[in-house]
Amino acid sequence: MNFHVLTLFPEMIENGMNTSITGRAIAKGLLSLEAINIRDFAFNKHNKVDDYPYGGGAGMLMQAEPVYLAYESIEKRVGRKPRVVYLTPQGQVFNQKMAREMAQEEDLVFLCGHYEGIDERVLEEIVTDYVSIGDYVLTGGELPAMVMMDSISRMVPGVLNNEESGETESFAGNLLEHPQYSRPEEWHGKKVPEVLLSGHHANIEKWRREQSIYRTAQRRPDLLKNSDLTNKEWNYVRQLRKQWKEEGLENK
Ligand code: ADE
């Protein structure tokens, strides 16, 4: 996987991505990262890349030409039109399915906006995907690009030590992960659930699955409709909901 990031703050991308698991994967050559400074493609002597919006309004816009030239430098090297993700609160909201799908690409370009945005004309020419990381507004696209690259990286074979863990954690099958415990067996008077100490693998898996369903039903019920529950498991969810409803009424 080759990540190319078009940004006004390349050091922010490099510092973030060269750390921890993504940093290790870059060092191993499983991922490559280039952060391209759009300012290097400014066509005026002051290296200015922003200007006032036509029609007036607050703030400045990133101009089309430096963004286009910076993009073109990637296209020329890659030798074809790569997928270009523009980070914007106006985009489709990022999720695990998109991460999994994008991890199949050989090259991904992330375009990070700043100021009030980017001249629409260059977006029309180069952007293939408009993506948001959630319904809130950030000061620029760098953090969203890093969020996306981090989650896409975990889906690239070899990046995680344990090959399966990329898909066995939260959101695998649209369920949240079960709770986990490590030593000591008792902490602050709380004991590790007995079944986890039993060594009985099938019972442990059954308990974990049930905990995943319980947790998802409680914390993210919206995920259940796309999950892979059996009829029996749906009955369990119905039973939980009934119980929670009754408890809610009792409390009033
Ligand atoms: N740029 C500013 N806010 C953003 C968000 N929530 N997602 C993606 N890009 C952004």
Notes on the protein architecture:
By secondary structure, the protein is of the alpha/beta class. Helices cover 42% and strands 16% of the residues. The chain has helices spanning 10-17, 20-28, 64-78, 96-102, 120-126, 142-153, 165-168, 194-197, 201-219, 231-251; strands spanning 2-7, 32-37, 50-51, 61-62, 83-93, 107-111, 129-132, 186-187, 190-191. The chain has a five-stranded parallel beta sheet, sandwiched between helices. A two-stranded antiparallel ribbon has the order 3-4. A two-stranded antiparallel sheet has the order 8-9. The longest helix has 21 residues, at 231-251. The N and C termini lie far apart (54 Å). Adenine binds at residues 87-89, 132-134, 136-138, 141, 144.
What is shown here, in short?
The protein is of the alpha/beta class and 252 residues long. It has ten helices and nine strands.
Mean pLDDT: 95
- How many β-strand runs? 9
Tally of individual helices: 10
- Basic shape: elongated
Topology (elements, then pairings):
Elements: E1 2-7, H1 10-17, H2 20-28, E2 32-37, E3 50-51, E4 61-62, H3 64-78, E5 83-93, H4 96-102, E6 107-111, H5 120-126, E7 129-132, H6 142-153, H7 165-168, E8 186-187, E9 190-191, H8 194-197, H9 201-219, H10 231-251
Parallel strand pairs: 1-2, 1-6, 5-6, 5-7
Antiparallel strand pairs: 3-4, 8-9
Helix pairs in contact: 1-6, 3-5, 4-6, 9-10
The chain binds adenine.
The site of adenine has 11 residues, from strand 5.
